[in-house]
Amino acid sequence: MDDLLRPWQACDAPIILAAAAEPGMDRQFTAPVDSLAAAEEWIALCTARQVQGAAYAFAVLDDGVPVGNVTVSNVELRHLTGWVSYWVLPEARGKGLATKACREVSEFAFAELGLFRLELAHRLDNPASCRVAVGAGFRAEGVERAKLLYDGVRYDTETHARLATDQV
User: Fold this and answer.
1) Do residues 88 and 67 touch, judged by C-beta distance below 8 A?
2) Over the Cα atoms of the chain, what is R_g?
3) Whole-Å CA distances, 9 to 51, 66, 69, 74
4) pTM score, two decimals?
5) Looking at 38-80, which runs of residues are DSSP E strands?
6) What is the CATH number that goes with domain 5-163?
7) Which tens digit of pLDDT belongs to each residue from 94-121?
8) Which pairs with CB-CB distance under 8 Å and at least 24 residues apart come from 73-77?
């Protein structure tokens, strides 16, 4: 995992702040990341959630530099499930990094966390995210109508899942 993924570090706060400033990226963070202190808090929250066993966030690296994030969250040990999310900065898109990171975090979730089912969803108007999901071995399971609400507009999402037993 060291070449592609590593835990977020406090020194990565400027990268998180830059990512949050990208148009539409504010949706990727649970609270506004509009200052270096807020970015540091986000990283501290990631670390705390990992200690609690609730979520595992990793910096996606390109030549050792963080350019994105991949997370397994909503870790539920009764049913052995989790939720995968990912993003990469604009300059890192189109290199296959998100797909590789999604595959790698899935293998981590199956092997290290003992999860059996991973889910993710993307807006229907985001075909690039769909390509990442499919490329990482996640099969489409269906459309959820008007699931998300951003800026007064409702969006349909497509849900995907990958099982530990799926051949990828």
Assistant:
1) yes
2) 15
3) 14, 10, 12, 22
4) 0.93
5) 56-62, 65-76
6) 3.40.630.30
7) 999 999 999 999 999 999 999 999 999 9
8) 73/49, 75/113, 75/115, 77/53, 77/114
